[in-house]
Amino acid sequence: MKVKLLYVILLFNVLACKQSEINSQSLEGKILTSKTILFDQQIDDDIVSRPVIIETSANTDHLKSYPIVIALHGRGGSNNNWVQPLSKFTNSGEFIGVYPQGHLNSWNLGQEPSTADDIAFISKIIDTLLSYSNVDENKIFAVGNSNGSGMVNVLGGVNKRLKAIAPVASQLTERTEIKSNAIPHSVFQVNGDQDLLIPIVGGMKLGHPFLSASDSAKKWATHFNCNHNVAVEEKEQTILHTYSDCDDNVVVKYLVVKGAGHATARDYTSLWGDVWDFFSSLD
User: Fold this and answer.
1) Tens digits of per-residue pLDDT, 239-281?
2) pLDDT tens for residues 26-80?
3) CA 186 to CA 142: how far, in whole Å?
4) Which residue has the higher pLDDT, 221 or 28?
5) Degrees (nearest 5) of the Cα angle 224, 177, 153?
6) Other C-beta atoms within 10 Å of 87: how many?
């Protein structure tokens, strides 16, 4: 009798351990960690595998939901370009970095080498991210540089998922549509006042009719019914314009970096810290 009881206890413990192992494996499968994910997309007549780099802390807390920052490179650039500049944030667990690769090293704004449907591509990435348990679905942000900035503006114009965007070294064009059903989101637009490639005053450049940077920020503010009594804060290297009292408590900010050219992050080393401070300040 005692032998049989001992056998039952041992069997129960083994089964419990196995179940614990299965649960642990199941949990691990839902945790987003550093990796590169390939997304297949039909572009013209070809199926193209597009890589997306995921950067997380090595000490990911399985019980925590992390903000997501999707970062889009400029034309001719690579998703690898984001790994080092944002590493201090991803390594410390401030957010999970998500770095997609533009097709033919560009984002399709109508005048680029790529003909990819990048709105569908980014949407598919977000759908996949939301299948992981450590992703905060209410804190998905997008930052872009140059051509990537233009793509971020396009995504904002059809927004369904993003809490905020940060277009850097570019602004809205006359063709960029902000749809009436786009969900309001906060904006942190950054422009260098010495940018010769996409000038702060706007105009026809790179095949696109750019608004002035000021009118671009004002267009976002108008669409989200912000108070047009803009607050201006000038510092030694920057001028910050803030529109508040907007729909859904969003905020529109426009930062002018004095003396900065198109390589804004090189000329203003606090840039990515300022972008993350803006994202992380939003309720």
Assistant:
1) 999 999 999 999 999 999 999 999 999 999 999 999 999 999 9
2) 344 589 999 999 999 999 999 999 999 999 999 999 899 999 999 999 999 999 9
3) 11
4) 221
5) 75
6) 12
Looking at the DSSP bridge assignments, the partners of residue 71 are 143
Locus of tokens 């129960």: 12
Which residue, 122, 192, 128, is CA-closest to 157? Answer: 122
User: Over the stretch 99-134, which tens digit does the pLDDT of each residue have?
Assistant: 999 999 999 999 999 999 999 999 999 999 999 999
User: Is the CATH number of domain 34-281 2.40.30.170?
Assistant: no
Residue 29 makes CB contacts below 8 A (sequence gap 6+) with none
The stretches of the chain forming alpha helices (DSSP H) are: 2-29, 87-91, 118-129, 147-157, 213-223, 264-267, 271-281
Q: Which long-range contacts (CB under 8 A, 24 or more apart) does 42-48 make?
A: 43/103, 43/114, 43/115, 43/116, 43/117, 44/115, 48/103, 48/116
Residues contacting residue 12 through CB under 8 Å, at least 6 positions apart: none
Q: What pairing do the DSSP bridges indicate for beta strands 164-168 and 135-145? A: parallel
Structure tokens at 140: 């998905």
CA distances from 129 to 61, 122, 186 (A): 16, 11, 21
pLDDT confidence of residue 228: 87
Give residue 283's pLDDT: 85
Which one, of 64, 70, 81, lies nearest residue 144 by Cα? Answer: 70
3-state secondary structure of 80: helix
DSSP H helix total and E strand total for the chain? 7, 12
Rounded to whole angstroms, the Cα distance separating 262 from 219 reads: 22
Direct distance between the N- and C-terminal alpha carbons of the chain, in angstroms, rounded to an integer: 63
Mean pLDDT of the chain: 91
CA torsion through residues 235, 239, 232, 152, sign: negative
